[in-house]
Amino acid sequence: MKKFFFGIAGLAFLITACAEPVDTEETAVTETTEKPNIVLVMVDDMGFSDIGAYGSEIQTPTLDQLASEGMRFNQFRNTSKCFPTRAALMTGQYAQRVGMSTSPNSRFSNHATFGDVLRTAGYKTLMVGKHHALDNPYEMGFDHYWGMRDGAANHFNPGSQREGEPVPAQKRPNQRTFCFDAECVKPYTPEDKDY
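The structure corresponding to this sequence follows.
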């Protein structure tokens, strides 16, 4: 038994002594993985099977490619209004839990958002489109925002949302500047002045 034990111990020592040293830099490089790009698309008033990836006869090749090369939600349920749906999607919580179940004039209550989590992971974040909440997207983990914060805004003159500028995109009689980060323009003004 002693011969067997010393034989195994000697073999282990020989293997260890003859092995090449491990290059820690190379190991670190191979263990590092590239972060995936994340594009989250939420569309108001869209049915489950309205794009090709979910069975529609309507051709939507770009959206279908995004769906085939990425991850698809197939168990997310929306609500009858858009702002609670956004709240649930942004936080991973029921809208009631984050204070957004009855009115878009509420604020997200003490919950991390999708933007917060991505920013913490080192991502640069951009939100585009209708937000429809009192919370400023810049305070929800987004580096950039281009869109409207009103529920039903003038899409021809949606307003601006840049850090340090007034609250954008709400129905107001005066013309507002629409901004995409540092580049601002005065948009088309509809002929209907009562909008």
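The CA atoms of residues 36 and 144 lie 19 Å apart.
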